[in-house]
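Database export, one record per block. Field names are fixed; values are copied verbatim from the stored entry.
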Amino acid sequence: MEQKALECPVCKSNKATIAGENVKLSGRFEDKEFLTTELTVLRCTKCGYYMFFDKMAQFTTKEESEKST
């Protein structure tokens, strides 16, 4: 699986803190209820945008990804 450097879609910052691990979202859409798989929630340290990733996501710092290329 390809590793990508973390980047906030709003402000393009690459710094984030973990807001939660193994988080499951539940909800209702029309007449159906749903429960997501476990997610990791990151919060951008610059603008506060929340990003949700499943267990397949792997994170590297920009410095690490530049070294390996």
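Remark 1: The longest strand covers residues 16-23.
Remark 2: The beta strands are 4-5, 16-23, 26-29, 32-35, 39-44, 50-53, 59-60.
End of record.
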